Amino acid sequence: MYKVYTKTSIGSRHMEKGIVCQDFSDSYCSSKVKIAAVSDGHGSRQYFRSDRGAKFAVEAAIQCLCEFANGFSGNTKTRRKIPLTDLFDQDKQSALMKQLYKSILIRWYELVEDDYKKDPFSEADLAELPDKYKHRYLSGKYLSAYGTTLIAALVTKKYWLGIHIGDGKFVLINRQCECSRPIPWDDDCTGPVTTSICQDDAVERFRYYISDNMPMALCFGSDGVDDTYGDGEILDTFYKQLIMEFADEGFAYTAKEIEKLLPDITKKGSHDDISIGLIFDTEIIKSNHRLLAFQINITKFKDEIIRLQEKINRSERKLTNISLNNDESAKESLEKEIKELKDILEYKKSELEKAETMAADINN
User: Fold this and answer.
1) How far apart are CA 12 and CA 6, in angstroms?
2) Are 146 and 56 in contact (CB under 8 A)?
3) What is the DSSP string of 208-254?
4) Which residues are registered as beta bridge partners of 24?
5) pTM of the model
6) What is the 3-state secondary structure (H, E, C) of 86-147?
């Protein structure tokens, strides 16, 4: 059975500067439907209500994905049932997804509008903004002040889907323990620049993936996560470790451990707000426990080997300088250190080879 977990932690930089957490995450779980969503409100000054926008985006996504999963097109007036076959007809699928995006955006607009009416922008809110934003907001075009990204996933008994607008990373772990990025990437998301739910063309900027091949886990997070772990094996291993912890130690214990872990990650890593969303099947994880454990060790060995080689390279450069200065005592000491590092490196390479062989044997 699939379980759902989401968590948000304020970034260490935001803590230091007294800035509110601009991420938000939440989930919904029933016997038939599992939903997780995370959002990352934009950080620039003109997006001064992005923390609220992030919350509204998650609320809108969960509500609309619930309606979608319950078999409705997103038009709550007609409540037209969706035949399951339509989800896997390419033309009909595209139309249905666009309707889903529109329903999320409409709900987000409603929540933003209601918030603005209750709490209009004050002079203090606008005081430090560049004139172009000040004029835009005073003219009634206030949506961008709430700008945010959004990633959400839905798992039912017969299919799953993921939707994404903006940055952050979405990782699929299949039943063979293989990781992939099934949702197409948006090349306009580079560095600090990201697409947003507040854009006029937001409905066209959503991306998605839908499948009836049920996963081991769907794992995703705001860019505070991938800015810490990158977008490769290290990120995959981070998520594998989390879902294995849930399978091994139970939900309540692991949830508390993650709550303690995330502040440490942001402090040592990106310093940004961090949100994660997980939907995972603990029984599938347990049945693949040995392979997952070997894969995690393989990634660790690879990382350790890279770091050891870098350290050896630095020491060898230092040795060259010492040799030029004819410092025999320092040279002998450093040569001994380099030899010890190389011995450790060879041991790690041997262990990596063993782990890769074991993982291959399990796969076969």
Assistant:
1) 19
2) yes
3) EEEESS--SEEEEE-HHHHHHH-SSHHHHHHHHHHHHHHHHH-HHHH
4) 39
5) 0.91
6) HHHCHHHHHHHHHHHHHHHHHHHHHHHHHHHHHCCCCHHHHCCCCHHHHHHHHCCCCHHHHC
Q: Under a CB-based contact definition with an 8 Å cutoff, are residues 154 and 173 in contact?
A: no
Token pair listed for 51: 């923390």
Angle between helices 289-324 and 328-363 (to 10 degrees): 160
Task: Tell me the CA distances in angstroms from 328 to 57, 315, 320, 325, 340, one per residue in order.
Answer: 65, 15, 12, 9, 18
Angle at alpha carbon of residue 68, lines to 67 and 70, rounded to 5°: 65
Q: How far, in Å, CA of 170 to CA of 324, rounded?
A: 51
pLDDT digits (tens, 9 = 90+) for 317-347: 888 888 777 778 888 889 899 999 999 999 9
- Environment class of residue 332 by beta-carbon count within 10 Å: exposed (0-12), middle (13-18) or buried (19+)? exposed
Tokens (6 digits) for 356: 């890769």
Nearest to 204 by CA among 194, 216, 196: 196
> CA 33 to CA 159: how far, in whole Å?
10
Mean model confidence pLDDT for the chain: 93
Cβ-count burial 81-97 (b if 16+ within 10 Å, e if not): ebeeeebeeeeeeeebb
Q: Which single residue is written with the structure tokens 């139309």?
A: 95
Question: Nearest-CA neighbor of 198 among 161, 150, 259?
Answer: 150
For 196-214, letters b (16+ CB in 10 Å) and e give: bbbeeebbebbbbbbeeeb
- Angle CA(114)–CA(115)–CA(120) in degrees, nearest 5? 110
pLDDT band at 75, cuts 50/70/90? very low
DSSP string, 173-202: E-TTS-EE--SPP-TT-BTTB---TTSTTH
**CA 179 vs CA 156, 170, 265, 301, 322: distances in Å:** 20, 10, 22, 18, 46
> Amino acid identity of 33?
V
> Percent of the chain scored above 70 by pLDDT?
97
DSSP state of 260: H
Is residue 73 pLDDT above 70, yes or no?
no
The pairing of strands 34-40 and 169-173 is unpaired
